[in-house]
Every structure is written in structure tokens, then in C-alpha cells.
Amino acid sequence: MRHGKKINHLGRKSQHRKAMLSNMACSLIEHKRITTTVAKAKALRGYVEPLITKSKTDSTHSRRVVFSYLQNKTAVSELFRDIAPKVADRPGGYTRIIRTGYRLGDNAEMCMIELVDFNELMLNNQDAKKTTRRSRRGGSKAKTTETVAAAAEEVVEEAVEVVEEVAEKAEEVVEEKVEEVKAEEKEAKEEKEEKKPAAKKEDDSKEEEEK
């Protein structure tokens, strides 16, 4: 039974566990996203989020406190320089755990833990999904009707352009066919005119023979 078990020891002694969490926190700060087991990710979340909150106040004291946990100058400087300004308006909840399945070797549940404000895909999707609240007075209906009317006008304009293009192409095709018919008629007339003198000569030769 787990009475009073507030800390997951992760099967390690205290010094080993602190060193592991410190290294994982440095990796998360550097890469903004790491893959690990769900148990370690939950332990890391409780370890790194207070440090991120501490980094919001950029002072010598807060830097020394954070360095005592991370033991890495580059991670501390990146935390205060890059991460702290982005999370300045966020009141906690700086990390997100996304479960990714189970590990093949020991079937441990795996996940990806990341910093919320550095996932550009999700941030873009949230901006696209943001909409205003619907009011009961019909304000949203008016907006929807305006958007529908604008969309209908665009569709009508596109349809008119398509019809005009089709009409122009049809006129061109008709003109080409008319020219072809005229050329064929001319050729037929020329052939008839060429045949007439030959027929007259044959008739004259027949008359002479009869005489």
C-alpha cells in the first residue's frame, strides 16, 4: 500500500535520482522536448516547473538557486534568456506530457514531455481556432450572414468569369469551323469549274464524230 508515499523514488537512491532529474531538466531546457517514461516525466514536471517559475524574476539570487539544482551554466542562461520571457504571462503549467505508447523491451509506458510555449504547431492551431463568444442578441448571426454573403459574391464572380471564358472559347471554335466550311466550299467550286471545260470538250468531240 502507498500510504504517505508522496515521492516516486524511481528505484534509485536520493543522490542518483537528483542527478538524473537535473540532467533531464537540462535536456528539456536545451531541446524543449524529450522522450522518457511516464513515471520519470511526472517526476521531472514537479522538478522543473518550480525552476521555471523562479526564472521569471531575473536576479542574482534566483540564478544561484536555479544553478544549485541544474549545475549547468548554459542551461541556466538559456532558461533565463529564452524561456522566461515566453512564459512570463503563464501562471504555471509550463510542460505538457503526451503519451506515445509502450516500450518494446520492458513494455514501459513512454511519453514525450515538452515545453508548452515552444510547440509552434499547436500554437498556430490554437490561434486559428480562436473565435468570439456567441451572444443571444444575434450578433454572431449577423457576422455569419455577412461572411456567407461575401462568400456567395465571390462564388458568383468566379462563375461569371468561367462563363465568359467558356463563351470566348465557343466563339473561337465557331469561327474556326465557319472558316473551314468556307474553305471547303471554295475548293468544291474550283473543282466544278475545272470539270466543266473538260465535259464541254468531250461533248464537242462526240458531235464531230457523229457528223
Can you put this structure into words, describing what you see?
This protein is mostly helical. The chain has a domain at 14-129: 50s Ribosomal Protein L17, Chain: A (Alpha-Beta Complex), CATH 3.90.1030. It contains 6 helices and 3 strands. The protein has helices at 14-31, 38-54, 60-70, 73-86, 120-129, 139-210, and strands at 33-37, 95-102, 109-115. The chain has a 3-stranded antiparallel sheet. The radius of gyration is 42 Å and the shape is rod-shaped. The mean pLDDT is 85.
Which short descriptors sum up this protein?
single chain; 211 residues; mainly alpha; 50s Ribosomal Protein L17, Chain: A
Annotate the secondary structure layout.
Layout: H1 14-31, E1 33-37, H2 38-54, H3 60-70, H4 73-86, E2 95-102, E3 109-115, H5 120-129, H6 139-210
Antiparallel strand pairs: 1-3, 2-3
Helix pairs in contact: 1-2, 1-4, 3-4
Strand order of the largest sheet: 1-3-2
Distance N to C terminus: 141 Å
CATH class of the domain at 14-129: Alpha Beta
Q: What is the count of DSSP helices, taking H or I runs of 4+ residues?
A: 6
CATH topology of the domain at 14-129: 50s Ribosomal Protein L17, Chain: A
Overall mean pLDDT score?
85
CA radius of gyration: 42 Å
Name the shape in a single word.
rod-shaped
How do the SSEs run, as a string of H and E?
HEHHHEEHH
Taking the sheet with the most strands, its summary is:
3 strands, antiparallel
Second CATH tier, the architecture of the domain at 14-129: Alpha-Beta Complex
Poorly predicted segments? none
Output the CATH homologous superfamily of the domain at 14-129.
Ribosomal protein L17
How many strands in all?
A: 3
Range of helix content: 55-70%
